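Quick question, first post here. What does this chain look like in 3D?
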Amino acid sequence: MAKKNLRKIQIDLRQFALPCPRVGSIEAHSGYGQTPRMGQEIHQNIQRKRVREIPGYEAEKKLSIEFERDQYIFVIFGRADGVIEGSSFQVEEIKSTFDVDSLEHKLTVDDNHPYVWQLKTYGYILYKQTGEVPDLKMLLVSSRNFKQSEIYFDLDVEEYESWLALRLAELVDETKIREKLFKKRVEAAEDLKFPFTSPRPGQVELIENIQVGFVEEKSMVIQAPTGLGKTIGVLYPSLKDSFARGQKTIYVTPKNSQHQVAEEAVERLQDEGASIRPLTITAKSKMCFKAEPLCNPQYCEFAKDYYKKLAENDLVNKVSKLRSLSQKKLQELGEQYQVCPFELSLEAIERADVVIADYNYVFSTRSLLGRLELPLMEPAQKANLVIDEAHNLPARAQDYFSPSISTRDLQNIIPSLAKIALRFQKRAQMLCEEAIELIESYRGESRTIQIDFDPVFELESRLREFLSEYLEADIEVQTQDGVLRLVNTWSDFAQALELQGPEFFQTYQKNRLYGEINETLKVTCCDASRHLNEIYKSFKNVVAFSATLKPFSYSMKLLGFDEETTKCLEFVSPFPKEHRKILLIPQISTKYKDRPANAPKIAQVMERIMAVKPGNYIALFPSFEFMKDVESHLRDSSYQRLVQQREMKADRVEDFLSFMKSADKPTLLLAVQGGIFSEGVDFPGDMLIGAFVVGPALPNFDFEREQIRQYYERSYDKGQAFNYTYIYPAMAKTIQSAGRVIRSENDKGIIVLMDSRFLETTYSETMPQGWFEQGAQELVSGKIISDVTDFWNSINDSIASEVEA
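> Answer (accepted):
Ran it through. Tokens below.
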């Protein structure tokens, strides 16, 4: 009798080898989720040593096995860290951890743990291949001092096969659900239609170029101006491609506030009948029910036994049936079943068709990449990745890998330590003072240093012990709890010391902050491109887009794209040039030494230009100090002034925008380049009719930035190092600032660039196509007020003609 046609399903061993039914809490080394990327070098060093010293030792041994159940053949595959064949038959798994003793205790007390099931599964595969039961060894290695500990386990074949029967039954049910989702996505790809009957000029070309790039299997770096409709223009072909392959699309932005644009694009597609299930990942701090978002079962009842409660209440399937994956709904479920709502949102990732999230969920050291990259049904297929406002990514990624700790950070914690339970106050304050003294032990001039790891890790270990004792006590943890702040601040820095490579350097820095000496230890990442490139390999297609990515050679390098496999495209504004007037005023200098003398001139120019056409204007400066200086010279009382503050809450920002939308009186908004009002904010219609971009906002010339410039000299074109470090980042802010004015076909306004440096080639080469024909000199006016008057007269004439028609 012919064997029935069975479908092969490939499953990574780490996703396969789980307790059945699920047990466990949300905590470090729960064993669920992805394997940390940090620590791989420790594994490799140990494996190399083992190969040299142990006869028959094979590192990263590929192992696989097939299990038939119902209409499926499950192919389980993985790589055992080490296998010794011969007289001593053994399989070894290596786990690196910051706290070896804690993990050893966990695995010794309860072997029903994912790490143990992984080890047993490797052992079972070898048993089925050889007929011999191997010894099972777990090697635990400290990432802070390389201390090692060994734990041995027995492979009870009968016990394993009892577990296996339960796990395969689970997989059958899970696979049937995944097959339905896969089929639904493929069908949705055929039905997915562009949601506008009349695309904007350039939008069709954008979509077609992206589709061609997908066929050619090239990453894409796209510069497109505001108003082109680039969000839906990029998202539509990305979804259509990923759906056709049964996969999802991941859409990331630099700020949570920018999620809305992507959400609205998805809603447009849904309004046209598209069957799309979106998920926006909301920050853990906003989802958490507790005073502090600490994932520790000793402290949080929503973390305790999370995986057990998830399985017992079938919550993954409950979540997958929800029409809305809103923060409110997930919190309601979390409250009902006493589970973490943030983690519950992560359970929904697999069944979401498009996931909208902040950069850090893909690119940071604590990313969700392991969940986001998992393919559905077809291992060879992967999700698509869309990177919005991609000009922000290099700096953001560098920040993820540039931890610091300062005496000021720690001194700010001391007052909150006085509020904790009396019996813990003295020890907490002593530990905090010890941390301050450790930083001060490097005292001297600002310089590059080599941080001594041992005292940092030793203090971190004692802080962790203190935290365990603190959480086990019968106390109520308050918001901004001093002990949690102290331990997390120090631990985050200590763990980041694992970061090594030519792109990293360590510094001691001393400066004055609010009149007091502040001392800082910092690990600086000059260039995160190597890390970003590794991340891209987790996705089928990657599209990075922004209004400011020129020159492309610079963006490609720092974004981590390979020149040979990347396609760069630039699109021009779809709106009539007559709607926009760009002026460049080279008579003004905003260089630091020239600012006091030029502040009155800037104020005067702004007031004269605004007098020609009363309305709402924004002036964007390179610093808060310079902004305040210019403000002090403004005299025109006919304008209401709004001034950005260093720290503004979201509701205050909305108040400013609402005022500009509704105010009868003309308004001047004073803000800084690179700030909350210069990127990702819309000022539609008459809400804004002009922008003054006051100089390029070059980063501060300081010790640390000069180290970064020297790195670029060593790693890239020496002649471009200054541009990479200072000019190109500043010009991205300039162009973003200028982009606030014209954002739709109905917007009309002026853009005034103030500084002679904008005429230099290294500055003007970054400007978008369409700003000038041959060179930036074309933007210089010999009669500024006359040109501005003529522009507004032409706009008025055009409006009058339209009314008559």
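The longest strand covers residues 57-69.
Residues 447 and 688 are 46 Å apart (CA to CA).
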